[in-house]
From TrEMBL, chains A, B, C, D:
Belongs to the Gfo/Idh/MocA family. PANTHER family: BINDING ROSSMANN FOLD OXIDOREDUCTASE, PUTATIVE (AFU_ORTHOLOGUE AFUA_2G10240)-RELATED, NAD(P)-BINDING ROSSMANN-FOLD SUPERFAMILY PROTEIN-RELATED. One of its GO terms (biological process) is NADPH regeneration. SUPFAM superfamilies: Glyceraldehyde-3-phosphate dehydrogenase-like, C-terminal domain, NAD(P)-binding Rossmann-fold domains. This is Inositol 2-dehydrogenase. Keywords: Oxidoreductase. The keyword Oxidoreductase applies.
Length: 342, 342, 342, 342
């Protein structure tokens, strides 16, 4: 375990980038965080808080100048493909956040480059696969404890408190739409748990909770029903209106039992008995909900590099999730059932 | 309160008929149970357990011979229309179980007859509208406590333990299909809570949990996605595979809060800490889940008769729920989105 | 079942008296409510709401003049003994609320009178023994499903919202002290579940939540630890400060599992997801918590009369519970361990 | 943060020692794990799993020969004092597991030595103070959100599955008794939350669940009632019989609300709906329940060393908890109320 450390850099110090940076620096003994690349105003934080002196605003320069083994790509989604391609061509292992990108053409190039560097690790940020609750459920399903899967329901619903900042973000950038933005992980979970692919979808969306989103061509809530290739049925709900917090919930109905993960997104083991009733405090965002999974996925990345193993979730998994999210969006836009081609 | 009692008879002493009979006889002071009409083998029970001497196997004869004010119709669904028509024409108030019938033609006749007897009470068995949990939720919604409704999800899932008896029943009779059999109440709840009508549906169904149902043209699980006329989205899940018990669940997502009713169908206030984990025992069937609602709906029927008020849930509500269930079924059968005409 | 009805009267139309009156009149077919005796201002309610014309302010007069089979005694606790004695001597069956009385001398007389009328039913209002949650737990314990009882914990805690009215009441009357007022049912449950008697207790009490109670020699919270004759240990907590509602909770630790009853006193099957967190609404008082048990205990009283069977909970059970509550109070008053003589 | 690492060794590689060793080596960037001292058979694990080459069976030799800044003492409780004294005299910072020791004389020496080295950090393993649930509750209490504390209840109950190994352990060693072994942390929490000291206790104990413990002078379950110096009342329950898992629960009743921590010791966010009912899987032992707290307490130890700050929980806190546990035990042994001298 106390072998030579993996020399690593991070591109992007936004909310999630900062989490990865802190986890690499403080919660993990596998990596040496050598350099960061981010917007000028974020670099100060890296210097003072993490003690990183090698800071860049140009990721190419950083990759060229530093002696790196691997890189974490947490920049704008649209840039994931070019950053990944540059890093792979420079011989680095790549951890790239989700989703792979926004337009399929550049993502396809990215995928080809990944395939042409089979000895380098490429891992994408499907952190939910490292969450202890999903892992517990996965094992139960694999052990046949709930029989055959019949129906699966995934919710990805952001707290209402974030709607303003989302509106700003979506005004400036392409969010990719409600399903890409909110349900990409749910789509991955549906595929991971069932081991099957969706073939058709009918999706609906509305802005009842946030009429202001109409102007920027966004939906607050989207609901997609999917038919899987083996007859399993799925429902995805994406939204940004949860008054109580951050609701990421997955229900798996089996022929001999059901599992719900995150039914109540409890923050801790505290129960309150107050004039509000009997209350469980709940998590407020993905940072809180998946704090440990973010730590565990980078441990797994280090292990993959050391053991020369590719991660279970491949780039194809990322590509398919992207295509499925886009098919749901297309169904909303066309008001029709959409066949899903993977 | 201690006025003259309402003279009443019951047609049908199956599972639900027996519940109504016992409730009328033992849990209510408004009615005198004068006579029953049922299959020969069930009459003995009425004599010995309820002390009813006036027993019939022909409902027409009973209505003709006894001096009745009202009748409870709990016979086979297909006979609901003719029984209702006969009773109304004989001047009786009618409480008729759900659904109104199976074929639309006879139901339409039934509806016309009801309309031509406006002074007689006609009440159908939407007992969920009398359940304290739904009433509590309804009041919250009406008070605006969860804002505007965005999405609504209704589950009607029978216990796995009943699948054999269902198979026998459905082999012999027309169940009406998964949505009519399992979700008619959920459809009523969606309409009741939203105050709006569905306009389109896409439904899917499978027999993963009960392949034997293929032979008798039934589905074990059905899932319907509905678009409401105001943009609200709904999901209905009907099934017969719940390993834990009887799951009737309704979720109402509002722009300022959510309500779930029956998320865990707790049987009582007991929590167990055993080698199985921390366990809440749950209700096993509709009899247990809605025992109090069955008592309360007949109290309301008596009050309607005494006060000459028609029930909130009208025959049109019953008719529309029937049409919506049939539209869902048609979507499964045709594999297409179906427009709903009400 | 449709036999001759039991002619019954009620003495006392306070909060609980009114509940019994309504249940007798509306939720039960066994009794004819013939007459009521109460304070003048309460009689109007009985006339208009229940249609009772035979109303009295003198219970002796009512018992003498009406042709009664049985009587419900829901008057002031201090009068329970004399009322019971008078009714028994008049040949009536008696249902008497808890506790039996406040001073042991009159209660002892009452007990002797009960013993000298063995053919008349005497039932006291241990309604918890009719609550479905306790019955479910009792059966589990009897079936050995949690092994041998090790420890038992009972909470009887009133809502904070009632503290003002309690203060008024306790200023005017003798509440009997925190343990008699709040834990008499818990004491009965400890005895009922374990089948054993407490032999010693050490009790503490404080007024941290309600310093104003000092002036009237009352305690807001009391905690008693009891040693049972077989080594089982018990803790009783009585209080009047619950911000969330009415917490009546019983925990039974067994050598092979635990049971908690009323851990969260859920009002219904509703779960709320709001900006307060994930919330279960809870019951607010004993009326709400035990509404069904109040109905069921009077059904059992009718059945006992018809079947000439004495209730499971005897007058000795009532007497012992009273003595135990007084021993706990004495421990607080003397600041010492108290030996319990039953 | 990326300063020079703290050179550290660990004494003891039992269950908890191995956890600390792994956490130091893998979950933390503050320490360099230089050496370990343990029984011969445990050293192999340290070599192969942690890559530690400097291994010892004599802790004095290790402290003398290695260039250490700090040491983790996780050896047998009885040796905590002499190990601490040796390490402090050698100039090291000390993290010592709970409890401080078993006999008061050697603990008093230990305390004196700690006081005579005020510039060296001494931290004891009150890891619960680092658990996010307790921290959340502590903040609520400090913010006055539940008003004034009235009553506090702490459970420390080990899983039934561990009773055999406990029996072996307690046959060979002095466990210190049920309260010292199971409730030392609960005692600390009572003091931490209330900010007050207990003045008297009456404790009871039994072996109903494990009669075999009689032979070795141990109790399976102990219950202590405590009177605090400000009138607050507390109940402690220690046991080793939990069929469902590891129940560490704390209830804090306040004059304006209650908090329960660990009411149901949920393992994760999974809810199961199976033929067992609705089930929450639960944690099985302290390793699982406090895994994050063990990580966080050593981070805090590192921060204390770097910042030259003594931990919030002082050695006096450890000493008082020890004395209180012993007073509870004495009450069981003498069958009397015991005054607590701190």
């Amino acid at each position: 375990m106390n072998n030579k450390k993996i020399r690593v850099a991070i591109i992007g110090l936004g909310r999630l980038g900062a989490i990865h940076a802190k986890n690499v620096a403080e919660q993990n003994n596998d990596f040496d965080l050598i350099a960061v690349c981010a917007a000028e105003e974020q670099l100060k934080w890296a210097k003072t808080q993490l003690g990183i002196s090698a800071t860049y605003t140009d990721y190419r320069k950083m990759i060229d100048e530093e002696q790196l083994d691997a890189v974490f790509i947490v920049g704008p989604t649209a840039l994931h493909p070019e950053m990944t391609i540059y890093a792979l061509n420079a011989g680095l292992h790549v951890f790239c956040e989700k989703p792979l990108g926004v337009d399929l053409q550049s993502v396809n190039e990215m995928v080809q480059t990944i395939h042409s560097h089979p000895k380098q690790i490429f891992q994408s940020g499907f952190m939910r696969r490292f969450d202890s609750s999903y892992l517990y459920a996965k094992k139960m399903v694999e052990n046949g404890e709930i029989g055959k899967i019949i129906y699966i329901r995934g919710y990805g619903i952001d707290p209402l408190s974030g709607i303003e900042s989302f509106t700003k973000f979506a005004t400036a950038s392409d969010s990719g739409g409600i399903f890409l933005d909110m349900n990409i992980h749910d789509i991955d979970l549906v595929r991971w748990f069932t081991g099957h692919e969706p073939v058709r979808t009918w999706a609906l969306a509305n802005n009842i909770a946030a009429p202001e989103l109409e102007k920027i061509n966004e939906y607050e809530t989207g609901v997609a029903q999917l038919e899987m290739d083996d007859g399993v049925i799925a429902t995805l709900v994406g939204g940004r209106h949860a008054a109580h917090g951050y609701q990421v919930e997955l229900e798996i109905m089996g022929s001999n039992g059901w599992i719900r993960i995150g039914e109540h997104p409890e923050k801790n083991l505290v129960t309150l008995f107050t004039n509000k009733g009997v209350v469980r405090p709940v998590v407020q965002d993905f940072v809180e909900r998946f704090s440990q999974a973010f730590i565990d996925e980078i441990k797994a990345f280090a292990a993959n590099i050391k053991n020369k193993t590719q991660p279970e979730a491949t780039v194809e998994d990322g590509l398919k999730a992207l295509k499925i999210a886009k098919a749901c969006q297309k169904s909303v836009d066309t008001n029709q059932i959409v066949d899903i081609k993977l």
